[in-house]
Amino acid sequence: MRLAIAILNWNGKSWLEKFLPTLIKYSQQAEIYVIDNASTDDSVAWISENYPQVKQVLNRENFGFAGGYNEGLKDICADIYCLLNSDVEVTENWTEPILDLFKKDESIAAIQPKILDFKMKSKYELAMFSMPDKKKDRLDNAIAYTRTIEKDLPNTDYTKTALAFRPKLEAEKARFEKIVAEAEKRQAELTAKQKAEEAKNAAKTELKKEENNQEAIENNIEKAKKDSATVSDPNSTFRIRR
After folding, report:
1. End-to-end CA distance of the chain, in Å?
2. Three-class SS state of 191
3. What is the pLDDT of residues 197-235, one digit of tens each?
4. Taking CA atoms, which of 20, 108, 193, 196 is between 20 and 30 Å from 168?
5. Separation of alpha carbons 91 and 83, rounded Å
6. 3-state helix, strand, coil in the chain (%, to 5)
7. Is 169 exposed, middle or buried, given 0-12, 13-18 or 19+ CB atoms closer than 10 A?
């Protein structure tokens, strides 16, 4: 089973310097790729010089997080893709539990393992929202909401990859195609409903115009009748200036 580990990088040389050596050490069975999102630092040159065994995919521009991965993965061929953040530290045998699960159950399309905090390794990593001007509150909240797992650690193999997934899985493909088909059907229904509403509004507008035209015609007729009555009045006097 061919495993490709893909790291998306944008000006992240400092993270690569810190965590790439460990990744290489504990990922001998995998091909490691760095997808560079048009970095302006010397990340690309540093990797080429220090770790030539790491393959690089160079995006022509910064496509953002999801876009960067989608663009970069087009140039990577594997059975399993592992999308790994550049600020993640891996440990020995970190990929084995994931690969074992994929091998045992072909219905599995993606695996998201639990992640431990780098500085507090007895706690889970926590992603949460906080106001940017309340750094202390953010830290306090993170500590408060992070569940201690010290009792679980000895008997649990926690891996640290962000996401691993199996491409071209037929069941997932069929499910995805069904979702797309349903979405397209719903969109077609909404479009038809919108067009019908637009046609209805257009008909109302035309009807209003016809009503206004009819009213204008009737007003002109009334005015013409009044003018005709005034001209035919025998008591009316016309004075012509010469």
Report:
1. 111
2. helix
3. 888 888 888 888 888 888 888 888 888 777 776 555 555
4. 20
5. 16
6. 50, 15, 40
7. middle
